[in-house]
Amino acid sequence: MIRIVIAGPRGNMGKEAVQMVLETDQFELAGVIDRKNGGKTLADLQGLPDAAVPVFDDPVHCFQETQPDVLVDLTNPDTGKVHMKLALENGVRPVIGTTGFSEADVEEMSLLAESKELGAIIAPNFAIGAILMMKFSQTAARYMPDVEIIEQHHDRKLDAPSGTAVKTAQLISEVREKKKQGHPDEEETLQGARGADVDGMHIHSLRLPGLVAHQEVIFGGEGQTLKIRHDSINRRSFMPGVKMACEEVMRIGVLVYGLEHIIE
């Protein structure tokens, strides 16, 4: 039995995670962290399953009272970083589903996880199909190095580009030599028209109501194009990855950034 605490239970992803944990035989929902509803129970929160699970507004108090094995954080970048550090300092293995971590953040958390000999996972995307999209894109880039990324998300997403897009570009950069794409004398007549630049690749971000999470990686070659696309139609699509991360984080003793490292 894995005892789990969820931070952000009222969000769209948080609600799905609560339901997944309650439905999984080997998981036990020990508590939830919600800065606005400390002292209540999960049953008190509108729209959430009827369960006598305590709600805490202080993560340290939550960890000390419930003694969980795993923290699943589905809040926002700033809160996720704080919760991750507090979890590791209190002997709890974090599974973080918020993006926006810098390389320095990841390095700091990695050193902390190693010093505590605790597993930790930061997942820019929990959808298994999205992980496969990234891995397939890395393979394609070995043979078609001219590539651009278009990512689309709902208009409440805080960071741009998405963590998935950044992670995809990082994976491609590992097998692709840096090169500037487009015409050598290319000029933006409107700033930002060509998107963000990562080692010569361009990333374009769309933010619109009605979207969930979508990404297309487009490769161009002589007389041909290749498109690798993934669409999350609803947030239930992320739950198999959350479940897998909760199980895997119990088996490792270091920080893992990206689920592609645990689905070989």
Question: What's this model, at a glance?
Answer:
Homotetramer. 31% of the residues lie in helices and 25% in strands.
Low-confidence stretches: none
Percent range for helical residues? 25-40%
Please outline the major beta sheet: 7 strands, parallel
CATH T-level topology of the largest domain: Rossmann fold
Subcellular location: Cytoplasm
Subunit structure: Homotetramer.
Protein name: 4-hydroxy-tetrahydrodipicolinate reductase
Keywords: Amino-acid biosynthesis, Cytoplasm, Diaminopimelate biosynthesis, Lysine biosynthesis, NAD, NADP, Oxidoreductase
Description:
This is 4-hydroxy-tetrahydrodipicolinate reductase. Keywords: Amino-acid biosynthesis, Cytoplasm, Diaminopimelate biosynthesis, Lysine biosynthesis, NAD, NADP, Oxidoreductase. By secondary structure, the protein is an alpha/beta fold. It folds into 2 domains: 2-122 and 236-261, NAD(P)-binding Rossmann-like Domain (Rossmann fold, 3-Layer(aba) Sandwich); 128-233, Dihydrodipicolinate Reductase, domain 2 (2-Layer Sandwich), CATH 3.30.360.10. It is 31% helix and 25% strand. The chain is built from 7 helices and 12 strands. The protein has helices at 12-23, 59-66, 77-89, 103-116, 128-141, 163-173, 239-248, and strands at residues 2-7, 27-33, 55-56, 70-73, 93-96, 120-122, 146-153, 196-198, 201-207, 213-221, 224-232, 255-257. A 7-stranded parallel β-sheet has the order 3-2-1-4-5-6-12, with helices on both faces. It has a 5-stranded mixed β-sheet with strand order 8-9-7-10-11. Strand 4, helix 3 and strand 5 (93-96) form a beta-alpha-beta unit. The chain is elongated. The mean pLDDT is 93.
